[in-house]
Amino acid sequence: MIRVLLADDQLLVRAGFKALLNAQSDIEVVGEAADGQEALTAVRAHRPDVVLMDIRMPVVDGLAATRRITEDPTLRDVKVVMLTTFELDEYVFEAIRSGASGFLVKDTEPEELLRAVRAAVAGDALLSPGVTRRLIAEFAARSKEPAPSAELAALTEREREVMALVGIGLSNEEIARRLVVSPLTAKTHVSRTMVKLGARDRAQLVVLAYESGLVRPGWLG
């Protein structure tokens, strides 16, 4: 079972998500929180696989709560999927840098929400349709001149190639088509690259691709 914690200051939103998630045979809601501080306490108590975290909450906002979760070594296996009302929320960029494994708008289709939860557990990142490219473009616009990265030395030439393709927003299937390999092979390359670089998920791999200079602004195509 995939254990999910809901963190949102709106009771009706939590109730709707809870009903949807608990209706799945492989997902159960193990806790709820109305603000970021409650979310932190609940995460430590329940150790969920995934936290659905609203960005705007009282006491401690979702962004700060996410950072505290992802920076805590004892909570490394907890994945956070951010939720917001607006697709181009001003905090999306910082949310991904803080370690969020996904980003969804609250009015997303139910199937997309379920896919995001399952993808996060699998170590993948899922962003709302249309967000990925804009997020990468925003990251590129804000990126400073990258410093030389010794970390990339640990990667094979193919792994660097795959990382660059992840960095421009391609899925495993798209990477497979680009490199003329199977989707499983592409996924294996992505997974090995993440392990070597210590990336929590694909979202962090995108950040590392830009910060290392492997991908530069203007490569979005």
TrEMBL record:
Can you give the residue ranges of the Response regulatory domain?
3-121
Which Pfam families has this protein been placed in?
A: GerE, Response_reg
PROSITE patterns under this entry? HTH_LUXR_2 (PS50043), RESPONSE_REGULATORY (PS50110)
User: Which SMART domains would you find in this protein's record?
Assistant: HTH_LUXR, REC
Which residues are recorded as modified (4-aspartylphosphate)?
A: D54
Task: Note the InterPro entries from the entry.
Answer: CheY-like_superfamily, NreC/VraR/RcsB-like_REC, Sig_transdc_resp-reg_C-effctor, Sig_transdc_resp-reg_receiver, Tscrpt_reg_LuxR_C, WalR-like
Q: Which CDD domains match?
A: LuxR_C_like, REC_NarL-like
The keyword Cell membrane is assigned to this record: no
Q: What sequence ranges are listed for the domain HTH luxR-type?
A: 148-213
What are the alphabetically sorted keywords of the record? DNA-binding, Phosphoprotein, Transcription, Transcription regulation
For this entry, the protein name equals Response regulator transcription factor
The source organism is: Streptomyces yunnanensis
